[in-house]
Amino acid sequence: MTINTVLLIVLSLGIAFAVSFYQYLYKAKSRSKVTLLLAFLRFFSVFALLILLINPIISRKTIETIKTPLPIVIDNSASMADLKSDKEALALFEKLKDNSALNDKFEVQTYQFDADFLPSDTIDFKGKQSNIDAVAKNLKNIYKNQTFPTVLISDGNQTSGEDYVFEFNPANKVFPLVVGDTTTYLDLRVAQLNVNKYAFHKNKYPVEVFLNYAGTKRLNATFKITQGYTVLNEQTIAFSPTKKSATLNVLLSADKVGLQLLKATVSSKESEKNNYNNTKNFAVEVIDQKTAIALIADMAHPDLGAIKRSIETNAQRKVTIVKPNQISSLEDYNVLILYQPTVAFKSVFEKNANAKVNTWIITGNDTDFNFLNQNQSQFAFKMSSQKEDYLASFDSQFNLFALDNIGFEQFPPLENPFGTITANGNLNVLLSSTIRNIPTNQPLLAFSETQGQRSAYLFGENIWKWRADYYLNKKDFVDFDVFLDKTIQFLASDNARKSLVVNHERFYNSGEAIEITAQYFNKNYELDEKARLTIAVTNTKTKQVKNFDLLRTTNAFQVNLDGLTAGNYKFTVKELNSNASYSGGFEVLDFDIEKQFVNPDWNKLSQLATQTHGKAYLVDQTEALIKQLLEDDSYKAVQKTIVKKSPLIDWIWLLVLLAASLATEWFVRKYNGLL
Question: What is the mean pLDDT of residues 325-342?
């Protein structure tokens, strides 16, 4: 407090004393206990009131000790139990967590991980995936701009996520505590198998297989691909201490239509500790036809190649780029994409008047809009010769099919002549256009369905820039290609629109997310957000039935069926208000990725320790790890002096005491007849 404040407080003491003395003691005939009490109460009340008026600032100093955080992270995946290191890992975890010396030096905080990164509340070693990459990313977010060590108790066998070695902050040391038997055992393993989900009838489809070998001697292994009791492919592979991997490329024939369940197996005459990883089940759905798409253009443009590549990422689609005068029969195609139509397209429009093939019209700077006005009735165009750039605006109410916003607003503008586009019928707009962020109230991408014939319209060229821009931001084309594929899927279907639409895969691997999505539309083909959808899932072998509710998401309903055991399942989705239903089926393949390992990955964890300037330890070296953490002088507690200033008027208790003092004085005076 300042000198002026101190002087004011002293003056307040004097004033309070003078007032109480003058009123109760100056001319008092006797100084009884009641008089002295009243004098004290008056003194306190006046002094407290004057102090509140002065309102001095009270400063308090506290010293806070900030310790370096020490996250201890334990692997909660099923591979820990499979390698019989779960009890050992839990004992080490408890030992480190409860170590008094570590708790004195560090702020010990405990976590667990499997597919996700979580607090260490329920460690049961039942996680279906191991994602050490999630540990790195979450620690970066939790301890931003801090320097700290990390103890990672794990076998190092990662089954999902990016390579964790380079994801941890190299400025923060990681000390892996490797659990499990590091002895090298002879082991053959189907490490990875790549195959397309779909194949076409009477074609051949490739299967790529990666085999791994761990051992110290030469051996010949037999690799087979079987379907039931039929061997589709068999070959012998030689392994040695210097050749520990092999890549096989096999071509199989798609002779039967439907879901084909197959098995890849590698074996030898030697006994192995783990035989589960010798086999990998996989499935291929053989379909008997492709969606044939004619991309008709009378000009060369980068859009043509981008559209073709994007659509053909779905193996069920085949795009043929042709000129208008090269089309002989429209019946050969399921969908027509008319790129920047001009008078040269006249014969195509005339033929399609009878064929009624669903079309997607894409316009641009070279489009003849007068010709379009004469040959279609969905839109009326009044266009100028001036070019304009149109940005996209996503309509979240679009409900023809489920599609997420993949960042359309951030895509480069499309070019189209400036003018007015007027719709003449019912239209579903997915993307509206804006000019320099000003809405034009005109469509950019729209869909329509008239008398069973479906159409799509994109008013602008240079969609290739969208695909390139998406790749620059996401490093893949996946979601953009899904966007175009759903456009084609809408056009390729000639069926009348169903009220209940359900999407699911024909097969899943054990441990994968099993998600089924559904949409329910009312009589106006609007997404009904009040629909009540349930699903009954039946195991065809055990006849066990499980019932679930589908939960509402952004533009669909969804259920997650994780935890189903391997087998064949039938299901029925029902909408309870209308009794609309959909029945389907899927297969869960027997594959547990957490059972693929024989040893902990010491090399990978050692590489992680080296990358972060830490050190990897084995179980019997735990005391050495604790000693290193305690002796590391780079992790010291920091003391901070915190000064808190608060005005006296904020002291609620002083106001309470003042009120109590005044009330007590009044009651005492009243009781003694002094009022």
Answer: 90
Instruction: With CA atoms as reference, report the closest residue to 580 among 515, 517, 522, 494.
Output: 522
Distance (Å, whole) CA 517 – CA 425 = 30
Q: Provide the residue count of the chain.
A: 675
Burial class, 397, CB count within 10 angstroms (exposed 0-12 / middle 13-18 / buried 19+): exposed
The pTM (predicted TM-score) of the whole model is 0.55
Longest dimension (CA), the chain: 129
C-alpha–C-alpha distance, residues 553 and 10, integer Å: 69
Q: Of 483, 474, 521, which Cα lies nearest the Cα of 502?
A: 521
Query: Distance from CA of residue 489 to its chain's centroid?
Result: 25
Tens digit of each residue's pLDDT (9 = 90 or more) over 451-498 = 768 899 999 999 999 999 999 998 989 999 999 988 998 888 754 456
Tokens matching residue 585: 């089926």
User: How far are the Cα atoms of 68, 398, 433, 485, 493 from residue 404, in angstroms, in the given order?
Assistant: 43, 10, 18, 13, 21
Gyration radius of the chain's alpha carbons: 38
> Distance between CA 196 and CA 245 in Å, rounded?
23
Q: Name which of 237, 92, 116 is nearest 177 in CA terms.
A: 92
387's tokens: 């070019």
544-586 residue pLDDT tens:
999 999 998 877 899 998 878 888 999 999 999 888 899 988 9
> Given pLDDT bands bounded at 50, 70 and 90, which one contains residue 664?
confident
Which pLDDT does position 480 carry in this prediction? 92
Distance, CA of 234 to CA of 629 (rounded, Å): 54
Distance CA 31, CA 46 (A): 21
Bridge-based pairing state of the strands 515-520 and 557-560: antiparallel
- Among candidates 139, 135, 179, 132, which has minimal Cα distance to 160? 132
CA angle at 578 for the pair 576 and 584, rounded to the nearest 5°: 70
| Letter string b/e over residues 72-85, b meaning 16 or more CB atoms within 10 A of that residue's CB | bbbbbbbbbbbbeb
Q: Which helix (H) or strand (E) holds 134?
A: helix 132-142
Give all strands (DSSP E) within 86-186, no chain letters.
Answer: 106-113, 117-119, 150-154, 174-178
Tokens of 557: 């309903």
Q: How far apart are CA 349 and CA 613, in angstroms?
A: 69
Angle 591-129-279 from CA coordinates, rounded to 5°: 20
Per-residue b/e over 495-517, b at no fewer than 16 CB within 10 Å?
Answer: eeeebbbbebeebbbbbbebebb
Q: How far apart are the first and last CA of the chain?
A: 40
Nearest to 416 by CA among 374, 447, 445, 455: 445
Per-residue burial over 110-125, b = 16 or more CB atoms within 10 Å of its CB, e = otherwise: bbbbbbebbebeebeb
Residue 152 in contact with residue 177, Cβ under 8 Å? yes
263: exposed, middle or buried (Cβ count in 10 Å: 0-12, 13-18, 19+)? middle
What would the mean pLDDT of 159-187 be, rounded to a whole number? Answer: 89
CA angle 173, 175, 178 (to 5 degrees): 155
For residue 600, give the amino acid letter. Answer: P
